[in-house]
Specification:
The protein contains 6 helices and 11 strands. It has about 250 residues and is α+β, with helices and mostly antiparallel strands. The chain folds into 2 domains: about 5-100 and about 190-240, Alpha-Beta Plaits; about 105-180, Double Stranded RNA Binding Domain, CATH 3.30.160.20. It has an 8-stranded mixed beta sheet with strand order 2-3-1-5-4-9-10-11, sandwiched between helices.
């Protein structure tokens, strides 16, 4: 099993609250990675004004990382009263999660002539050098139209290498999907349209309950789980063997 993954989180339906929830999920996985001793590296992100994320991409490296997190892919739904809600009404919002195994360069060959590479100024942390110099990298893979970017590193070289790793992972995922189609074993794409009905898990704050709709099981103490205590959910998936063939 791969020991490096790409974590991609995107806000879905629900406006600002969806972006805040995307940020909650990002911090949950970051804290779980810290508990496991895994390396969590931010690659690219798009903040909102409310400390949420429209999107976030990170690399997580560590023993059994793909084995333990592969079931997190899909649409996560939250039901709660947002901080921005003045009337006390419960809102339903979504964020999508994709877990993509990172592959070695030898597994995916990329023709340099198929790439369109551009540089831009980072919008993130890192000091004056990162923000004033065009260190961030965006790569377009012309044959597929896939676009990746990295802006968390302090140099063009570091960001370019990270973006290429991300591109290889996405090309590998696409290749796997195409192979599965040929074999008649097509599974749904991980992210989907992030609509409220396309849910794998619901975080219901009023009832302090997380429901995983694939397992058909409920978990309590949402705040503890969002603080990185994912072990109960991961253990249930391992017992179910639901994702053994992934």
């Amino acid at each position: 099993m791969p020991n490096k993954i790409i974590l991609e989180i995107r806000a879905g339906a629900g406006g600002d609250e969806a972006a805040i929830f995307a940020g909650d999920l990002a911090r949950m996985y970051q804290k779980y990675a810290a508990k496991r001793g895994w390396k969590f590296t931010l690659i690219d992100f798009h903040h909102t004004s409310l400390e949420g994320y429209k999107s976030l991409i990170a690399e997580i490296e560590g023993e059994n990382v793909y084995e333990d997190l592969k079931q997190e892919s899909g649409v996560h739904r939250v039901q709660r009263i947002p901080k921005t809600e003045k009337t006390g009404r419960i809102h339903t919002s979504t964020a999508s999660v994709a877990i993509i195994p990172e592959v070695e360069p030898k597994e995916i060959q990329i023709n340099p002539n198929d790439l369109e590479i551009s540089f831009f100024r980072s919008s993130g942390p890192g000091g004056q050098n990162v923000n004033k110099v065009e260190t961030a990298v965006r790569i377009l893979h012309i044959p597929t139209g896939i676009i990746v970017s990295s802006q968390a590193g302090r140099s063009q070289h570091a960001n370019r290498e990270t973006a290429m790793n991300l591109l290889r992972a996405k090309l590998y995922e696409q290749k796997q999907m195409e192979e599965q189609k040929k074999l008649g074993a097509l599974r749904k794409e991980q992210i989907g349209m992030a609509e409220r009905a396309e849910k794998i898990r619901t975080y219901n704050f009023p009832d302090d309950r997380i429901t995983d709709h694939r397992l058909g099981k409920k978990f309590h103490n949402i705040e503890k789980i969002l603080n990185g205590e994912l072990e109960p959910i991961i253990k249930e998936f391992k017992k179910s063997k639901m994702f053994d063939n992934f």
